[in-house]
Amino acid sequence: MMKYIIVCGPTCSGKTDLGLQLALRYNGEIINADSKQIYRQTSIGTAKPSLKSRQGIKHHLFDILDVDQDFSAFKFAELAGKLIDDISRRGKLAIVVGGTGLYLKALTEGIFRSPEPDKEYRAKLERITDKDNPRKLHDMLKAIDPQAAAKIKPRDQIRLIRALETFKTTGKPISELQEKGEYIKIGKPLWIGLAPPRKTLYERINKRVDKMIEAGFEQEVLLLEPHLDAIRKKKMLGYIDMISYLFDKNITRTEAIDRIKQHHRNYAKRQMTWFRKVDIINWFDPSDDDFMKKLLNICDNYLKSA
Fold first, then answer.
1. Euclidean distance between CA atoms 194 and 286, whole angstroms
2. What is the chain's mean pLDDT, rounded?
3. Which secondary structure element, helix H or strand E, spans residue 93, and what is its range?
4. Domains with residue ranges and CATH for the chain
């Protein structure tokens, strides 16, 4: 059985630093599981590990696509699975680090291989969303696949469009395909979750956003002008608010920064809600005095076990 470690948790909880520490201790390599850090043009706004911090440790699935390109949880599972196998064969330990729950679920539980996107139909659905009540796509899905509609929230545009697109392409409900589809399942990892106290986490988020601004986040967004449509469609956290200030001119700079902080805090809350449902995660509060001692003990025992 291939062994690897997953480091998960909400944004700003310390996943990147912990991943690096574990990689140094266990002769490991890092695999990114953050859905926005895969893009080349988004470094400051995604808190991507710096090139300096990556020196000496191999990092995978960072900067592999332009923001205009599509990616999926299935593709992540496919690529990450191959990397885990390769890293293990070389006698090293794969350490998967990130907070995109669907990517981690795809890797560990499997996810069905959906058909290739129908860009023309997708654009049509996006226009419907832009013009009409956001519930319209949900109503459309409910009519053809009530089982899928029951699991997808009315405002989850990305998943609604994918479900409708899948039905048009295959003629079958996505819920049926998910039950019968091709799945990838990779090993049995050790899950490590970081969960700082909410007040501490929110303070760290606010400080991170301030550092993003100081580091030149506005300039990074200005350079993304040719990709604004793609960023809007992907609803990229932080970037949307800065676009509203820099390009749409409908909010002030101060309002943009405040919204970025609030939306990151909201995102952290949603991440924790999602991860709390994964009952095999070993949770740690990084502020505890014996945090690293307890964590390393669990990692040592996992790696020594048969």
1. 7
2. 91
3. strand 93-97
4. 4-111+184-304 (3.40.50.300), 119-180 (1.10.20.140)
